[in-house]
Amino acid sequence: MKTLKTLLIDDERLAREELKSLLKQYDEIDIIGEAKNGEEGIQKIKELKPELIFLDISMPGMNGFEMLKQLDEIPKVIFVTAFDEYALKAFEVKALDYVLKPVDPARLQEAIQKTSQKDDDFSSSFEGNITRKDRQLTISDSVFIKDGEKCWFIELSKVRMLESDGNYVKVYFDTFRPLVLRSLNSFEERLDPEFFFRANRKFIINLKWISSIENWFNGGLKIQLKEGEEVEISRRQAIRFKEMLSL
Asked: Is the dihedral of CA 226, 122, 61, 5 positive or negative?
């Protein structure tokens, strides 16, 4: 198993100790050093050349984002912070993940799983993602989702379904169902129609997650997703579905 040389950068000693304790179980993580502020972090990165850094954002003197701007080459970054308001900025620097303190072991595991992605998929550029809010999202884009105290940084390819639930939308991925305060229509406008299909007034489905299709009442269709959920495609949308996907 390939190990990743890893540096922890956080001004709180107890936070670093907690993270070290949680990371002990991961053979792929090789902690080669620590830094207690941005200035020391830059020095350690230049000396030790880590492949991955766990980085706090709010630190005295120089915050995490300001530290990254001082680097010529940026390792893979997982932000570990007590503040959720910086998540969108984390998109701009192409961070692997954004984990809130206190660190939940399950969320940490998700973040570490993302370290195995190909280097070609990781960009350390601060440019090129600024207009993200103005463009349609692709299936490979990752999105930040917050529900209460829990946060996720999830690739859209893993989202198999979205369900309207009053003023919220329930997002289905892995075993999670977080609620987002937005309309289903707003999601439909941003998602790539090549992969995300509006099945009816209540559901959008990811076509890549369909496992079976059968004819249903009144000219509709019933689809089953790979995780077992069943969704009816309305008669009107069934016509569109067949037009889009038939030979």
From this structure: positive
